[in-house]
Amino acid sequence: MKGNQVTIKDIAKQLGVSPSTVSRALQGHPDISEETKRQVNELASKLKYQPNAIALSLKHKRTRIIGVIIPEIVHFFFSSVISGIEDVAYDAGFNVIICQSNEKFDRELSNLNTLLAQRVDGILVSISKETTDFQHLHRVVAQNIPLVFFDRIAPGVQASSVIIDDHYSAYQATRHMTEAGRKRIAHFAGPQNLSISHNRKEGYLKALQDSQIDPDPSLIVEADNFEKARMAVINFIHTGNIPDGIFAVNDITAIGAMKTLQKHGYSVPEDVAVVGFSDGRFSAITEPPLSSVDQHGYEMGIIATEMLLKQILEDAGNNSTETRVLRGDLIIRGSSKI
Questions:
Q1: Within this chain, do residues 217 and 141 fall inside the same structural domain, yes or no?
Q2: Mind listing the pLDDT tens digit for each residue in 155-191?
Q3: Which domain holds residue 20?
Q4: Does 23 reside within a domain?
């Protein structure tokens, strides 16, 4: 028993039967007598025998493992997606390997290679901020490995996806502020190579247009984390270019803006209204509570996994793709409501 790992051959040797008899007995094969099955199972239990997962996967052509690549696990949205993924996967008898790119292209590429080496049955991906080259994802499709994107997609890669209608959600968030009389609304945007960031910016601009407000380029800045939001607000203050509203690409950015405004004597929402995006666990406990767009992360995880499992179980690969678009819900709280 090399390395203390019991094999079918070890059990067969002790019982004086063939390895194939042991294998069939463990599977409950009708050609094996009940007495032999009892002896094999009792010895297997005594020796703490565990089936070789790699050997089984080679035999059955499935590992019953799906891989997940996310940008950052610390974000409430992505942790909500993971909860949905795991609930569906485990109910279907699949295990989940979760990898974090940490918003780095190289890490994403390494994660993907690791999952492929583990022979996962399918992969769920939300691309990193740095990812602009999609050859590694095209390779997955070419190998006919089921692939589904969630939230952040790779344009041009033929795969199914589950996304939020970012344009609509951003429009609603901005329109909420214009209808309250705000005229100088800033947008703290994400990297424009990401479709979610681009679509949220376009939704913001469309809401201004429909409100007969000309966009001010000086109020549109790339700021998608707490520190960048802090610096952007300080720059507004130093230049005397204070907006009366801020629509941020995510909640952490919105909170950074709100805290910095308050630190410098500005009142939220009386002086500046603030709206975020994702409706994370902190949005309801800030002071004032943060208005935000609920992205329905848990539901997104459920739908994405159901789509992936369907491809796996039907051996469909990526031949038939679909896109599911969810509607975000604007949750109005104290940061934008007077």
A1: no
A2: 999 999 999 999 999 999 999 999 999 999 999 999 9
A3: 2-51
A4: yes
151 and 236, same structural domain? no
278: DSSP letter: B
Q: Which pLDDT tens digit goes with each residue over 295-323?
A: 999 999 999 999 999 999 887 666 778 99
191 and 220, same structural domain? Answer: yes
Q: How many domains does the chain have?
A: 3
Q: Which amino acid is at 99?
A: C
Q: Classify residue 239: in a domain, yes or no.
A: yes
Question: Can you tell me the mean pLDDT for 277-299?
Answer: 94
* Average pLDDT, integer, range 102-112: 97
pLDDT of residue 285: 93
- Show Cβ contacts of residue 44 under 8 Å, excluding neighbours closer than 6 positions: 6, 11, 26
CA distance 336 to 257: 13
Rg (CA), the chain: 26
Beta bridge partners of 68: 98, 124
Residue 290 domain flag:
yes
Confidence category of residue 117, pLDDT binned at 50, 70, 90? very high
Please state, in angstroms and rounded to a whole number, the distance separating the CA atoms of residues 248 and 245: 10
75 and 141 assigned to the same domain: yes
Beginning with the edge strand found earlier in the chain, give each strand of the sheet holding 65-70 in spatial order: 95-100, 65-70, 122-125, 147-150, 160-164, 323-326
Same domain, 37 and 136: no
pLDDT for res 126: 98
Alpha-carbon distance values, 64 to 98, 145, 272 (Å): 14, 13, 51
Determine if residue 280 is left, alpha or beta; phi over 0 gives left, psi from -120 to 50 gives alpha, anything else beta. beta
**Between the CA of residue 183 and those of 89, 111, 208, 333, 336, what are the distances in Å?**
47, 45, 9, 20, 14
Mean pLDDT over 42-69 rounds to: 74
| Alpha helices for 47-194 (secondary structure H) | 53-60, 76-91, 105-117, 135-142, 166-178
